[in-house]
Amino acid sequence: MTVAVFDHEGPWTEEEYLALSETQDRVELFDWSLHVTPGPTPLHQNISGELRAALRAPVRAAGLRVLEAVNVRLRPGRIPIPDLVITNDIDLRMPVINASDVRLVCEIISPSNAATDKVLKMHYYAAAGIEWYLLVDQESLTMHLYQRQGAHYVERSVTKAGEVLELTEPVRATIRPEDLLA
């Protein structure tokens, strides 16, 4: 983080947030304030990459995109960086994806940041109208799939190692948790 970040006073505008240079830390904008967490671990990144690889063909067949670690505007002043998203066909040159273009959002739970993924982001994503939320526990390799119902999510399935997650929306795909360690 640069000295300018620490010298900043008051709320952050989206323009100021987007002007920050890339860092090893994950910097998100939550209600005009910066939320900084350490960069992901190699295990976290491996799971994310393997999940993206598993989804790539079915996502393309559906005319959608699967992206890792991109800015998603949930509402003005609220821009998290989910681990993975499935989106409509969007302009890849834009620095921010609007929530209305996100069909599924995925977070890989980090032990040091579990509450943010399980509570805060879950609430924010549902409030923004994102239909599907996939939580992957990197310690147990358990995948929890949620579907939005009103302003919150309802758990639709829990998939543990040795089982198969069968997605039917927003794409048809099968994912085995143990394959995320390949």
From TrEMBL:
A GO molecular function annotation here is: endonuclease activity
Which keywords does this Swiss-Prot/TrEMBL entry list? Endonuclease, Hydrolase, Nuclease
Name all Putative restriction endonuclease domain ranges.
Answer: 15-172
Entries under Pfam families matching the protein: Uma2
Against CDD domains, the record matches this protein to: DUF820-like
Under the heading PANTHER family, the entry gives: SLL1072 PROTEIN, SLR1083 PROTEIN
Q: What is this protein called?
A: Uma2 family endonuclease
